[in-house]
From TrEMBL:
Pfam families: MULE
Organism of derivation: Arachis hypogaea
Protein name stated in the entry: MULE transposase domain-containing protein
Domain of life of the native organism: Eukaryota
Domain MULE transposase residues, every copy: 386-484
Organismal lineage: Eukaryota, Viridiplantae, Streptophyta, Embryophyta, Tracheophyta
InterPro entries reported in the protein's UniProt record: MULE_transposase_dom
Amino acid sequence: MERGISLKMYYNGQIFPQTSEGVSFVCENPRDIVIPFAITYEEFKSILCQCGDNQVLKRVVNIFYRQPVLVFGGFVQFQMMNVVDEGSMQGMFSIYQQTRTQVSILELYVEFEELVEVDLPKANIDWTVYNSESEEEFEGTYHIVGPTEEVGEDDIIVESNVADVANALASQYPSREPSFMHALDVDVMNAPEFPEYINSNPVVVSDGEFVVGMEFSSRETVIAAIKDYTIRRGVDYRRKFCWVVRRYNGSHTCTRTRISQDHAKLNSDMIAEVIKPLVEADPSLKVKSIIAEVQSKFNYTTSYRKAWLAKQKAIANLFGGWEASYEALPSWFEAMVQKDPSAAVEIETAPAYQGDEVVHDVRILTRVFWSFYPCIRAFRSCKPIVQVDGTHLYEKYKGALLVAVSQDGNGNIVPLAFAVVEGETSDAWHFFLTHLRTHVVTRDGVGLISDCHDSITSTIACSNGSWEPPRAIRMFCVRHIASNFLRNFKAPYLQKLIVNMGT
């Protein structure tokens, strides 16, 4: 399966809002790009800038998405959607996932703005002062910000023009080697920075405070520790691009003023790590239980959306994501058939396209049918009836789940076969009922119970007699009839009579 998103970027061209297909993009030299699913909005804009004209310094001004819209008859029209932030970008990716079988490539029109380069003035600088031995040592550290302080963008982002000036000056005026470089003590230079901690175990402080020399196993560990500290104390921090605690002034003493019930550092990734044991024990854990767990652990009330995202990430970390799970299906079915050769599996796939070209070694799952051998064997001892029904799938990959069941002598439900298809269409029901007749329901004289769906009716009519008398008798589900009656006539007391008539 594809692990990225294929997109075509148009720029320095034209947008035609009214064509036979809706909106269309045109430019002289469109670029084909593949981006990962897990990407931020800023990273997305950075990739678009890199794929444009590399000779010009620029920034993204507008991003327009050629959004496909499915209309009656299976046709596709396109309308324009403006991508302005993280939410609209994720919405664009969601639409792409739902319509990629009809439109295999994502089309964007990007408007850039050229940035004016800064002319470097001739600087009259006393280089003797800058090369003297009195240069001060700068140490990077994390600076904890109180609730009333604001974190400006200047504390996080390094301005590119400042770096350009520094590089130009460095190349124009090479520095002289200071005198102390001729008298280096190699033993002192290689000595550990904190010798008192060289043989000690990593420090663990019970009250959650940092100490000088505290060791962390990875970058992620120190980030998690700092996030946990700031969340519990209701403060924020500035990034200084360093991950070693060199100086620590003690516990934060600012008064906590709770402006919001949420915390900026309490994101879905951190919540996912916290609730992972709960999700592993119960994957159907409710979102309100996650909100309560965060409240009890951090004393913050997180939003429903953030808690839901955290649950999805925890499930993906524990059991695998949607892409990995679908990619594992062929291997899983192959292993099932090898373990039990009497099991029945039928898979239909379609070729994957990138633009107008077929992507080799990649197929798109369209339909899959399976039945376990114990279910096949159990039907021999069941009543001669088969009930089929379908339900819609509402998760990331849409479609329908079709199921066939029967009854044993005690009236217990016995599952027979399953299928995941694109929807309750005539082709999908034909796929399911054909393989059900071939692999499971091989005897004649059975009753087929279903609702009055037109797709099932047309499939039975085209089954070459395999689901028609005398081999099978079509019957309608009384509960579906009663439900349709109540929907049309709004008479519950008459609905009960209809159910009694059919039982």
